[in-house]
Amino acid sequence: MWRTQFGDRTLEGAEAILFAEALSYLLDEAISGTLEEYEFGIECFDNLTFGQKIATLSIIGNGLLRKDIPPVRLTAVLEGAIAAVFQHIQDLIIFEIDAPEFSTSWRELVIAARKQTEGDDTEQAQIPERTCIDLDEWDLQMQVLSDGILWDGDYQDAQLYIDFSPVKSKELRSLMGIPEDYFMAIADDLTDDEAQVKIGELRKLCESIIKSS
Questions:
Q1: Which of 4, 64, 68, 104 could form a disulfide with 130 if both were Cys (CB 3.0 to 4.6 A apart)?
Q2: How far apart are CA 12 and CA 165, in angstroms?
């Protein structure tokens, strides 16, 4: 489970499938050796080693897709990893739009997830058609979905707090409700063998979610 502003929750249905598909694609990047060079524009995730990236993806994947996992203590690294998955979905949608000879499958997955999150209000929601090529529109849809998990964008603000004195930084974190170790928590740095084990476990989890559709 995952601790969100809407309570502890586990992704289900179309929302879970979208996240599992994106996570699975990132694991493909890891296996092909391109994950380390992939720049998401999320500093707290981009700066991690390969082993740390796999460790964080494993934690968020299990936390968001398994009900038997207790809620994880939130840190900038973990929330940054979630943001990276959503950024990856946005990148894949851009690829779809730039290469119209390919399918609209990622846009369809996003639409299904958005319809699920809107529930009875689907008809009133601003959900685009699968053929929409307006990137701003898809950015908005991804923002709505990520807001259902992430509290805010604090994971990007480490430098803001570092620039202040320790006392001022502590006061500011307290004012904003940010835990003491939120920015300081360090991801485990898995060895290559440990990373491969985690990749295999996470792939099985993602496949089980995708096949349940």
A1: 104
A2: 43
142: nearest Cα among 94, 206, 103, 102? 94
CA atoms within 13 A on the CB side of 184: 10
Query: How far apart, in whole angstroms, are the C-alpha atoms of residue 204 and residue 182?
Result: 30
**Among candidate residues 26, 63, 56, the one with its CA nearest the CA of residue 186:** 56
Structure confidence at residue 208 (pLDDT): 96
What pLDDT does 174 receive?
55
Residues of the chain with pLDDT under 70: 153, 155, 157-181, 213
Rounded Cα distance between 113 and 18, Å, is 7
Secondary structure element (H or E) that encloses residue 7, with its range = strand 7-9
Residue-level pLDDT at 160? 53
